[in-house]
């Protein structure tokens, strides 16, 4: 009789039954390919399937989900304790420092007797060099493209995932409220960021998959700029965006501040972003193509003459995330020509922004859950520009 592991599942985010159901869904999606197993290397996909999480995901890890039998996780030796604690898996293998993990993976696949393998090809943490070594280690195995299998399943969240995202949204709102209060003339960007992150973390947030975006003055007109010690002055725009997390599930929020009376152009642009966001939200309901909310927002922006100040998607999927990105934009976007239909349980962040590049950015965002009748907006923080 196998001895019970006291660490097994000790730090798991969900019950074992949740992950068992996910493994069965993977197997059902894998079946049409007719392969012996699916190989996953992306941290989000491995987490979704097993609950495996660590700050050490920079080191190679792989999950093998066989068509039948128990999944097998391969991690760096140092990570085995954490893998036991965060998952309900009973078969965890290790590669050693100084060992080529590709060779370790090849030996594991051979030991399991796998003759054909579906492999995800879009993992961020497999370099060209490592990918080549993995291909060499698996040269006797028939390889099929398994990309997108788990991502497609991740797009619709279960009730426990939605509960985690709702909690993350409360942390994000607490952090944003603190940042709005701190954004005043005389403080610097670091002060604002410290207030934002401290409030979100005290409220309950865990590690955030990307740093908050806090910028002021001309720097606020640079996409994805963040804090650099700049002192906030009268006449500055301040751009604020963060995502907080609960059990690795993220919810994001964006708001704008102006120090002093905003110029007429900034006010008009802010009004346009709010109307565009509202148009996108109003268009969201089950059965509608993902392109429709974007088209609704784009129509508002185009009519106001700000097409060149936008030029991006209106939204992207949210869920479980590891650095470097808090979103699931690689899975699903609210953008032109995206034909997948909205379904209850999908979650999106909709950042409506307009930029005077190199001068200022204004905008607001919401994270929303698609319901059976429409959407659930996860923040009640006013969207209007805060004027100090």
Q: Your description of this structure?
A:
With 388 residues, this protein is of the alpha/beta class. It has two domains: 16-154, 3-Layer(aba) Sandwich (Creatine Amidinohydrolase, Chain A, domain 1); 159-387, Creatine Amidinohydrolase (Alpha-Beta Complex), CATH 3.90.230.10. 33% of the residues lie in helices and 21% in strands. The protein has helices at 16-30, 43-50, 80-86, 101-111, 128-137, 149-154, 159-182, 189-203, 264-282, 291-303, and strands at 37-40, 62-66, 72-76, 92-95, 116-119, 142-145, 213-216, 237-246, 249-258, 315-317, 333-334, 347-356, 360-370, 375-377, 386-387. The strands form three sheets. The protein has a six-stranded mixed beta sheet with strand order 4-3-2-1-5-6, with helices on both faces. The protein has a five-stranded antiparallel beta sheet with strand order 11-10-12-13-14. The protein has a four-stranded mixed beta sheet with strand order 7-8-9-15. Helix 4 (101-111) runs parallel beside helix 5 (128-137).
Short overview:
By secondary structure, the protein is α/β, with parallel strands linked by helices. It is 33% helix and 21% strand.
CATH architecture of the largest domain: Alpha-Beta Complex
How many strands, which pairing sense, and closed or not: the largest β-sheet? 6 strands, mixed
C-alpha-based Rg, rounded: 23 Å
What share of residues is helical? 25-40%
CATH superfamily of the largest domain: Creatinase/methionine aminopeptidase superfamily
Shape: elongated
**Strand order of the biggest β-sheet:** 4-3-2-1-5-6
Low-confidence stretches: none
Q: State the end-to-end distance.
A: 68 Å
User: Taking all residues together, what is the mean pLDDT?
Assistant: 96
The number of helical segments is: 10
> What amount of the residues lies in strands?
15-25%
CATH top level of the largest domain?
A: Alpha Beta
Number of domains: 2
